[in-house]
Amino acid sequence: MVKKAKGKGGFDGDGYNKNVSRQVTNETWKFKKSFKHHKNSDSQTPVIRKQVEPETAKYFAEIANLFESQGLDVEEQSVICGNALEEARGKELELATDYIISHTLQTLLEGCDVDNLCSFLRGCANVFPAIAMDRSGSHVAESALKSLAMHVQDTEAYTIIEETLRMMCKVFVVNPIDLMCNCYGSHVLRSLLCFCKGVPLDSSEFHGAKASKILAERLNFKVSQMDGNDSQHLEQGFPNLLKFLVSGMVNCTREDIKTLQVDQYSSLVLQTALKLLAGDDQELLQIIPVLLGCNKQNLVEGRSIDIISAGEIVELMKETAFSHLMEVILEVAPESLYNEMFTKLFKNSLFELSSDYCGNFVVQALISHARTKDQMELIWEELGLKFGDLLGMRRPGVIASLITACQRLQTHEYKCCEALATAVGSKNETSKCIVPRILFLDSYFSYEDKSSWNWTGGVKMHVMGSLILQAIFKFQSEWIQPYILSITSMEAEHVLEAAKDARGAHVIEAFLASDASTKQKRRLVVKLRGHFVELAMNPSGSFTVERCFNAGSLSLREAIASELLAVRTELSKTKQGPHLLRKLDIDRYANKPDQWRSKQASKHSAYNDFYVAFGSCESKLPTKNKFLSDASIDISEPEELNTRKEIDSSLTSTSMLDDTSVEKKEKRKKRKRDVGSEDAVDSKKVMENAVKNFLSSGTLDKKRRGASKHKLQI
Questions:
Q1: What share of the chain is helix, strand, coil (3-state, %, to 5)?
Q2: Between 687 and which of 21, 59, 368, 609 could a Cys-Cys bridge form, CB atoms 3.0 to 4.6 Å apart?
């Protein structure tokens, strides 16, 4: 039997716990579970419950038929729901865990008023854990919480809802381990935690985000919603109850913490609790050491982590459930505790953990949340010369996290580029092989004779390899010349294949938006000539076409426009087609090609004049990284985009005036041979307006720096 926690587990102390425990036992449900080798909920015996009486079953069947007839108005429905819930008093466990009647009960809970809802929950509070741990009952419990959440904004109902939740929380903390380690109970408990915080009950952010979303945030491709706990979606919550419930779960299960550390369902509950408490350093400093298995004496003495137990914690990081929990711990840990964990747990263990299937994700989280350049120096000492080993062991995520962290903290940037190039090639080989090998990481590193490896056609490109290259092309051009040489030296058919692959297309787009020279970019774009229609018809390829158009010379732009004009009708019927046709101004090119050329020439001239006057945004603008928000996002791109928009809008208005003036049309025809005369004047005026707007804005505002559209993509 699982030992119940000793000491004060609720608001009323031991006396309340004993009474609740006796009541729960008398309600005909018992759990016998051995946690010695606990792996999943299958090891527990089913809940023992009474059978639903025939008369009761008949009554609720009639209620179900009445709702199916759909002849009730809202007021009648509320009255019937209240009466039916009153009939369920004392039978909540049997009804909620009945496969058929549970569906009817869900409908009743969703349609009743807040008073009847709270009355039902208070009546079954003592057996609510048993309901939550049942396959059918868990749906009833979820429906009750969702229905309750709909009334939380009602100020008159706030007090009764709070009292109902308090009664339920008192029951939960008596013996939370059964609930936490049950696959159904775990989900209900996470919903209750979200309810107490005031976030949506079905929020994927707190129930367990997708791996791709976690990766995007970790590599700074997406701003983490953890900052502020997704404040834009916060509703009125019950913060005191949240702290009581979390601390009650942790304190009551201190003796069984080793079980909770490796159980997949309890790990999910603890992850949700930590995410919801993000920013509350006082609470986290008390809870996280307990989850790490540290004893109470160390906390009293001000030592969160005992060096003696550090080895055990490192071994736990190789367990699936605990590795996920540790990732969240590193994400929300206060700085002082993060620094202590970095020194006592991870120092001299980074490569060992990076080599492990589960441990490497913990290392990724550690690197992604590194605070200082000194910490990055220690990380580099252990992993900087191990790029080849990590790639050979299929651990590219560690390298991707390291590259991104170096960008964010502006340290070891050149060393990262050099180490990666060395890992995928040798000194005797040219730089041309670097990009293809990274695009096909698994294929290359699984090849026995790596020196004879060739481009692998017809195979999807490597996700992490694509992400690594996207990050690499964010560095200054002088640091990534081998990569630039490699991608511009690719065969035309290989460039086309990469552009047609979503992962390869993102790499090409990253290169075209990089700090590489215009000449180098056009060397790549020209290899796609004749294939822009094929790319434009592809949803992901349309972005590549747009990038190629922006990077191309006037002749290349016209070549792209000419190709798309031939399939304008077909392209306009696709999802991405109208946007692309509008961006490239294909209608103008079809109807007024001379005007289109003039506009493109004016744009080109205005851009050149602007950058001659002000230089590259990369070199002029101050860089300021924000921890896990604006980090590693290229700040030159938003300004360039905004400047382009200003110039484009000015040129558009100018061209509209030209359309209404017959005299200007005649003049434009006469100066066909010399586009530069009047257009140059127009472009100078446009440039002056852009410069005036640029200077009047003073310094770049934070929104423009943070709203970069050139984020790395998955």
A1: 70, 0, 30
A2: 609
- 70-104 pLDDT, tens digit per residue, is 767 777 888 899 999 999 999 999 999 999 999 99
DSSP H or E stretch at residue 202: none
pLDDT digits (tens, 9 = 90+) for 675-700: 444 444 444 454 455 444 444 444 43
CA distance 55 to 101: 13
pLDDT in tens, 427-462: 778 889 999 999 999 999 998 888 889 998 888 999
- At residue 510's C-alpha, the angle toward residues 504 and 513, to 5°, is 145
Cα separation of 43 and 39, whole Å?
Answer: 8
Distance CA 16, CA 171 (A): 9
Query: Of 629, 606, 640, 630, which Cα lies nearest the Cα of 512?
Result: 640
Q: Which of 469, 320, 464 has its CA nearest to residue 394?
A: 464
Measured between alpha carbons, how far is residue 619 from residues 110, 481, 606, 623, 701 in Å?
A: 59, 18, 20, 9, 17
Longest CA pairwise span in the chain (Å): 99
Nearest residue to 291 via CA among 251, 338, 232: 251
3-state secondary structure of 646: helix
Angle at 374 between CA 373 and CA 377, to 5 degrees: 85
Give the span between the Cα atoms of 408 and 333, in whole angstroms. Answer: 19
**Res 75: pLDDT:** 79
One-letter amino acid identity for 573? Answer: K
- The CA distance from 523 to 64, in Å, is 70
595 band by pLDDT with thresholds 50, 70 and 90: very high
| pLDDT per position as a tens digit, 561-592 | 999 999 999 999 999 999 999 999 999 999 99
What does the alpha-carbon distance between residue 710 and residue 491 come to, in Å, rounded to a whole number? Answer: 26
Closest CA to 35 of 242, 301, 263, 195: 263
Of 379-388, 597-606, 676-685, which has the strongest mean pLDDT?
379-388
State in Å, rounded, how far the first CA of the chain is from the last one.
47
Q: Cα–Cα distance between 213 and 233 in angstroms, integer?
A: 18
* Residue closest to 691 by CA, chosen among 590, 598, 615, 588: 615
**Burial of 517 from C-beta contacts in 10 A (0-12 / 13-18 / 19+):** exposed
How does DSSP classify residue 345? Answer: I
* Residue 510 DSSP SS3: helix
- The pLDDT, as a whole number, for residue 670 is 47
Q: Are 277 and 310 in contact (CB under 8 A)?
A: no
In eight-state DSSP terms, residue 574 is S
Encoded amino acid at 627, one letter: F
Residues 90-144 have pLDDT tens digits of 999 999 999 999 999 999 999 899 999 999 999 999 999 999 999 999 999 999 9
Q: Burial code of 132-166, b = ≥16 C-beta within 10 A, e = fewer? A: bbbebbbbbbbbbbbbbbebbeeeebeebbbebbb
Determine the pLDDT at residue 696: 44
d(CA 120, CA 111) in angstroms, rounded, equals 13
579: its two tokens: 């946007």
What angle do helix axes 239-252 and 264-276 make, rounded to 10 degrees?
Answer: 140
**Residue 454 region, left (φ>0) first, then alpha (ψ -120 to 50), else beta?**
beta
pTM over 0.70: yes
Q: What is the DSSP letter of 136?
A: T
Residue 295 dihedral angles phi and psi, to the nearest 5°? -85, 160
* 340 close to 298: Cβ distance less than 8 angstroms: no
Q: Which of 355, 408, 411 is nearest to 383 (CA)?
A: 355
